[in-house]
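Dear Dr. L.,

I hope this message finds you well. Following up on our conversation about the binding site, I have prepared a predicted three-dimensional model of the protein together with uridine-diphosphate-N-acetylglucosamine. For your records, I am including the exact sequence and ligand specification that went into the calculation, followed by the structure tokens. Please feel free to forward this to your student if that is useful.
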Amino acid sequence: MGQYIIEGCNKLGGSVRVQGAKNSALPILAATVAVGRPCIIHNCPDLSDICSTVKILESLGCEVHRGNNMIAVDSSKLSKKKISDVLMREMRSSIIFLGALLSATGEAVMSAPGGCDIGLRPIDIHLMALRKLGVDICEKHGELRCRCRKLRGGKVVLPFPSVGATENIILASVKANGITTIINAAREPEIVDLAMFLNSCGARISGAGESTVVVEGVERLYSSQYAIMPDRIVAGTYMAAAAVTGSTIIIEEVISSHLVPVISVLEQAGCKIEASGSKLRITAPHKLKAFDRIRTMPYPGFPTDCQAIIMAVASVCDGITIISENIFENRFRHICELKRMGADIRVQERIAVVNGVDCLQGAFVRSTDLRAGAALVVAGLCAEGVTTVDKICYIDRGYDSLAENLSALGAVIKRKENI
Ligand code: UD1
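The resulting structure of the complex is given below.
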């Protein structure tokens, strides 16, 4: 398990290119199983979660070749319907293989998924929805055994717009008999990316990005090449890095419409943000101002994945910012680490009151999950002295070449492998 060693208080400058979106790449790679023909996916970031996904694909019998940000998957050789417990535990999105396998073979056997410890993360909505589509699910001895001769379309009403459940239903229904209508679907851009990939393979999915998604089952899908969209959370992280260091940087390969709530918060903090085409320039003031209360919400609300990162920004703003986490019940674990760096944050249940300080101080801190780790890196960039961010294996789940990219912008950050 490695560490990042960061010497803070260095100005950033220049430009950085944003990687492909992890949360699109993972379901799209799983979706290649449902396609059943060779597919080539471009702009795949180099992440440990992508390696875990490739391991699952190979364990199912798919042929996988990796090139420069490209992954070719031939799922016509699919020979297994079971994913081992060890592979399931590596990440949360392993659960998306459930819909993909059911679509491909009518059967799937797996245990509960793992992933970052940010809350209970149940899968009840996934299972309820699949049962509605006629899947017979038996949960015994920690294993899910799912079976269905031919999935049948139907109307599924989600009690909460779960991203993963929406993806699983789309995958399960893409080759089902008839039409599936998902009511209260998640509207995240990653859902749109998945639907666009599947439609490029011949699927008939409409309404992705809206709260009603309609999937008209097709007989078969075809080979396709597809490029993953840019990662909005990684873009938000580089924006936060510029904000806390009072810098001007250009972020390339951005879809700024995906970043509206993050841009709005950083503008309130005093940053000037200019978007033009796929580029975005952020110019931060010498001292940031506290911003209005932030409540994490499903898209298009403020993303929970940017909550920890924006809290690192709030820690050095002039004034008090209130941040409530409404999506995951255990997503405040970065707070005690930020406090080690001198942040003034009080917590009551799911609400954090952040009283900005003049400057954070470098300290030894530990990532507790992917975005918490990224927040500590952002904090380290503006802290006085040296910050050691431990357990960066969490950061490796979602950030491709983070230290290299920040170094190219002028940060002093080194990766140290442990020990
Ligand atoms: C996805 C993202 C994650 C992001 C989250 C919310 C991926 C790989 N991960 O996670 O980065 O933080 O969306 O934007 O795309 N829930 C249930 N029952 C269910 C499913 C979910 O109660 O069956 C609850 C969860 O516990 C959580 C909330 O719904 O409180 C949101 O979860 P969901 O939208 O499903 O997130 P993920 O798909 O796991």
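In brief: The pocket of uridine-diphosphate-N-acetylglucosamine is lined by residues 23, 26, 92-93, 119-126, 160, 162-165, 186, 190, 304-305, 327-328 (CB under 6 Å).

With kind regards,
A. P.
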